Amino acid sequence: MDYHETVDVKSLSVHYHGNLALKNVSFTVNKGSIVGVIGPNGAGKSTLMKAMLGLERCKGTVSFFGEKVKDIRKNIAYVPQRSSIDWDFPVLVKDVVLMGRFMHIPWYKIASKKDKERAFEALRMVGMEEFANRQIGELSGGQQQRVFIARSLSQDADLFFLDEPFVGIDVKSEEIIVDILHTLKQEGKTIFVIHHDLSKVEKYFDQLVLLNQELIHAGEVKDVYRTDLIKKAYHGSASLMKEGQELVVVNP
Amino acid sequence: MIDNITLFIDQLMRYPYLQNAMAAAVLVGVICGVIGCYIILRGMALMGDAISHAVLPGVVIAYMIGASFFIGAVITGVLTALAIGYISQNSRIKEDSAIGIMFTAMFALGIVMITGLQGTSVDLWHILFGNVLAVSKVDLWITLGIGIFVLIAVIIFYRPLLLSTFDETMAKSSGLPVKFIHYMLMLLLSLVTVASLQTVGIVLVVAMLITPGATAYLLTDRFPVMLILSALIGVISAVAGLFFSVIYDVASGASIVLVASVLFILALFFSPKQGIIPKLFRKPVYDS
Ligand SMILES: Nc1ncnc2c1ncn2[C@@H]1O[C@H](COP(=O)(O)OP(=O)(O)OP(=O)(O)O)[C@@H](O)[C@H]1O
Ligand SMILES: [Mg+2]
After folding, report:
1. Does A226 fall in a domain?
2. Which of A16, A71, A86 to mutate to test the interface with B (most CBs of B within 10 A)?
3. How much is the ipTM here?
4. What is the pTM of this model?
5. Which of A54, A169, B38, B99 has the least C-beta neighbours within 10 A?
6. Which domain holds residue B215?
7. What is the pLDDT of residues A21-39, one digit of tens each?
């Protein structure tokens, strides 16, 4: 495939104070797919995302549709791990969603009516419009996650990076988010999702990046989601059971 | 009380030095209140304390060579912030320890310089605890200049400051120079500290930074409202504190800080949403 149609990661390595967190990772994913990044705790999933976004000092190259990350920043929406947010911060739900518009507003202007409408529309897409005036701490985990998804939608980006969006959220929120991801994919957006729960991998993703410091394997779900590879990634920290076609990883 | 107020107003009309003091105190209330909001939300209260103490050697050197002490203070303030950043990023020492080391070192250096310079006109007491009644016209202009600069910076960079305070990773990934913003804020903090030197003094500046902001934080869920409330509370503290200081003839800086503290206590207990007492009487709310 043409490199204008792919995200290419080549020999990416990251270390923290001399400790290797990511070793020589290379893979290619196609535009318009939902990519699951999976691996055990401390495998370097968040590190991979940060390195791809150019937020962590790293060796190697990353190209998004033939361009460097610094040239397409406005086009990248990032949804943080929920634990990294201060939920007592004095912002309302609608203020958070509007932040997705910030990079499109020139510094000398204030947020226009159009920006606010776009933010509200995004809020409606995740079914959170009636909570627009709530302080963000006064929501359930799933609702909070939907608000941050709405923020990324309001940004009108082409690339999405979500760090563990499904952790600690309710079934309804999970369904809404998965639906939105599929809609985005239909629109040709490329979405990276860090994910823990292996049981739903086949339902959610088109491609997988399986990590444990090194790349174990990357590619179509059916080529990566295999007992031997999962076992290799999760070492002894997981036992595997075959349930029909489904793999279940049980963390001890 | 009414008598005291008319007496205070009467004196205010009559004495230019008191007018200067009032204007300086109001300005300091506003800019400390505004910058304080960022300090609180970024969890940098200790940093605020550090920078304010660390300007001491800069002030002393400026006196020695006859330069404006505003410049000396800003230079040492920013240098200290850079040194703290350098230590915490390049060693295993965590930021709070780095702050503790740097600011006591700078403060001690300032004290040694002052005590070694016996006989000069540097008045340690006034630098440490302020003397708002000695504010000159020139000081007032400089304070006004700093105030305008700080407010313009906060207005122009409102969105970058908000985003980098709320969600640093998104700020970085959207291309904001997060480190630069941090050091800009340290520069503003040094400026604010210097502007507050004469009003409340080095030791108590941190109270003017933290207390009004914390009070406002208890009263609202919206950041812009917090900024305005905090500035307002800063001004109320400044005016009321100056009033008590003149009427009862006590130290101005300390009485301003005490008023701010009392306002904080009131908000802590009686704030409609966050207050401890309203919370006691609130029925549990069950979300649908
Ligand atoms: N800022 C940092 N400084 C030092 N070490 C770090 C830092 N961030 C991550 N690490 C280390 O790098 C390794 C990979 O961390 P990372 O956060 O990328 O893992 P992860 O796969 O996202 O894990 P989790 O599933 O727990 O989120 C871990 O061993 C972690 O301790
Ligand atoms: Mg992680």
Report:
1. no
2. A86
3. 0.88
4. 0.89
5. A54
6. 2-280
7. 999 999 999 999 999 999 9
